[in-house]
Write a structure and sequence with these properties.
By secondary structure, this protein is of the alpha/beta class. The chain folds into four domains: about 180 residues, no CATH class; about 180 residues, GTPase HflX, N-terminal domain (Rossmann fold, 3-Layer(aba) Sandwich), CATH 3.40.50; about 150 residues, P-loop containing nucleotide triphosphate hydrolases (Rossmann fold); about 55 residues, Alpha-Beta Plaits, CATH 3.30.70. About 40% of the residues lie in helices and about 25% in strands. The protein is built from 17 helices and 20 strands. The strands form four sheets. Strands 1-3-2-4-5-6-7 form a seven-stranded mixed beta sheet, sandwiched between helices. Strands 13-14-12-15-16-17 form a six-stranded mixed beta sheet, sandwiched between helices. Helix 5 runs parallel beside helix 8. InterPro entries: G_HFLX_dom, GTP-bd, GTP-bd_M, GTPase_HflX, GTPase_HflX_N, GTPase_HflX_N_sf, HflX_C, P-loop_NTPase. Its main location: cytoplasm. This is GTPase HflX.
Length: about 575
């Protein structure tokens, strides 16, 4: 796949360039002569800048084409590590013949940690010079830049420059050991047409994703502008703010179309992502289990598929950075077919994992294990509550979506009872429908639970809105008729005056332990009322009823009499009522 500005380039030229992905170059040469000749030839042919990512193994990872004066860096969706370089060098051409690296080139080297940034001046069907830059020692809290050249084409010090990559790697690791190198957060501008509370939540999401919020703007509109979401005048105003504040990224507090994203990027001059892309990125960072990673990738691909036009999206697993970006036009139909095939493949893998999970759930039901699901808004304190009730050591962070994969723990209840407590992924306003679809198998832990405990942050100023969102998502999942117990968490931080809302909810503090005994007792009371130990005589003509009991309850004793099967069993209230009705009908 060739990225960038492909307009007007013949298909035969693009096909020739794609063959570079199958080529192999000497691993010990910084810029092989054969690759240099290819870059010079096609730069002259199309009269535009060209760029390749050349790996240490001598293979081409990415190819991009720009304009005569500039080129956008394709994103590999490889997460940048703090303890090493990227593993590939960026080689690009300058059609005007000037081989010198620009300030933008050097900033990209420092930010993206390339093995090296290399420029090739091209004019009159030949290379006029080659210049290379590498990361140097720490100076004034950032890595310096070591440059070589420009040198003539036949005078490239191949071994010296390859050795310089090794030295740059050592410098980065040394800077880390000395504590001088930290990740530079992207400077973000937040844009909303909703409310200040929604902007506050977006700021929390941006912080969780690792961005530094430097500005935020709220524009009251009846509906979004179809072109730029915020309108041309507001976009022009924000463009000046982006320049003054050195903004790297604009985050829109809603899901926007691909056209709106491109128009807004052109107007602001910075990368733009929407709320959905931001949440997907957070999920990509948080995914730990193999199933969680598959679910995230499926959600990302479903999000990207309708936005392919003009985005040049890579198909790597779990996109890197905050959100997604890709310059210029791509081979759209090829991309779409690949994405659809990958979506089908992921769906099949998740279907197999669902079968395994259903088998485990069936075993739990046979063992009469009562399931209690903790659900609630993200960062409401569900994981802290799980740890407090079960003595577990689940990761707890003051971040949104700290828990992604479901966690099950056994909890001892009063009167020698117990239950399995499930901590599920948190809900949020404007939860991307791609995530609801992809994570349905995870969210179904609530669907099959015997009791749902809705945990709310009672100290939040948006408590009512958050609670409404949780119940709305539960209705979408089809669990609106499940028994529900509400726990109002963080009451030690809340100002409580008058009657609590809703009536019957239990005030708790998972952090201090306040109200947890009351909560356990109420869960135990609910659990006890869910099971009935009954003795029934099932006529032989109604064998299906006996199968219900075997499948949905626990059989304690079974004997055969003249008129039917006498069974002593434990079954839940719903099954008991169904059995009674079946036995009463002729």
């Amino acid at each position: 796949m060739i990225h960038g500005n492909l307009e007007g380039i013949r298909e035969s030229v693009l096909a020739d360039l794609e063959k570079l992905y199958d080529a192999e170059f000497p691993r010990d040469e910084f810029l092989p002569d054969r690759l240099l000749a290819i870059l010079v030839r096609y730069t002259m042919l199309i009269n535009r800048e060209m760029l390749v990512y050349l790996s240490r193994e001598g293979t081409i990872l990415e190819i991009a084409i720009g304009s005569i004066a500039s080129i956008a860096l394709p994103e590999l969706h490889l997460r940048r590590n703090l303890d090493r370089l990227s593993g590939f060098r960026c080689v690009h051409t300058h059609p005007g013949g000037d081989a010198r690296l620009s300030d933008v080139d050097l900033q990209a080297l420092r930010l993206l940690r390339f093995d090296s940034m290399c420029s090739v001046g091209v004019a009159d069907n030949r290379a006029t010079g080659i210049m290379a830059a590498f990361l140097g020692e720490m100076e004034y809290d950032k890595l310096s830049i070591v440059t070589f050249g420009p040198v003539k084409p036949g005078r490239i010090p191949q071994n010296l420059w390859m050795r310089e990559i090794e030295l740059a790697e050592e410098r980065v690791q040394r800077a880390i050991r000395q504590g001088g190198l930290t990740e530079t957060a992207e400077r973000a501008l937040l844009i909303s047409i909703d409310s200040e509370s929604s902007l506050d939540e977006l700021a929390g999401l941006a912080d969780t994703a690792g961005a530094l919020v430097v500005a935020r703007t709220l524009q009251k509109r009846v509906k979004p502008d179809p072109s730029t979401f915020i309108g041309g005048g507001k976009a022009a105003e924000l463009a000046l703010s982006c320049q003054a504040l050195e903004v790297d990224l604009a985050i829109v507090d809603d899901e926007i179309t691909g056209a709106q994203q491109r128009n807004l990027e052109n107007a602001l001059g910075v990368r733009v992502i929407d709320r959905t892309a931001l949440i997907l990125d957070i999920f990509a960072r948080r995914a730990q289990s193999s199933e969680g990673k598959l679910q995230v990738e499926l959600a990302q691909l479903k999000y990207r598929l309708p936005r392919l036009t003009g985005l040049g999206t890579s198909l790597s697993r779990l996109g890197g950075g905050i959100g997604t970006r890709g310059p210029g036009e791509t081979r759209l139909e090829v991309d779409r077919r690949r994405i659809r095939r990958r979506i089908d493949d992921l769906s099949q893998q998740l279907a197999e994992l669902k079968k395994q999970r259903d088998m485990r759930r069936a075993r739990r039901e046979k063992q009469e294990q009562v399931i209690v699901a903790l659900v609630g808004y993200t960062n409401a304190g569900k994981s802290t509550l799980l740890n407090a009730l079960s003595g577990a050591d689940v990761l707890v962070e003051d971040k949104l979506f700290a828990t992604l994969d479901p966690v099950l723990r056994l909890v001892e209840l009063p009167e020698n009872r117990s239950c399995l407590l499930v901590d599920t992924v948190g809900f949020i306003r404007k939860l991307p429908h791609q995530l609801v679809e992809a994570f349905h198998s995870t969210l179904e832990e609530a669907l099959y639970a015997d009791l749902i405990v809705v945990v709310s942050d009672y100290s939040s100023s948006t408590y009512r809105e958050q609670r409404a969102t949780v119940f709305e998502v539960l209705r979408e999942l089809g669990v609106g008729d499940k028994p529900v117990l509400e726990a109002l968490n963080k009451c030690d931080q809340a100002e409580i005056a008058g009657e609590i809302e809703p009536p019957g909810a239990i005030l708790i503090s998972a952090k201090t332990g306040m109200g947890l005994d009351h909560l356990k007792a109420e869960i135990g009371r609910r659990v006890a009322s869910m099971r009935h130990e009954v003795e029934l005589l099932i006529p032989y003509a109604k064998g299906a009823v006996l199968n219900w009991i075997h499948q949905r309850g626990q059989t304690l004793r079974e004997t055969y009499e003249d008129t039917g099967t006498r069974v002593l069993c434990r079954i839940d209230s719903k099954t008991y009522q169904q059995v009674k009705r079946a036995l009463e009908t002729e």
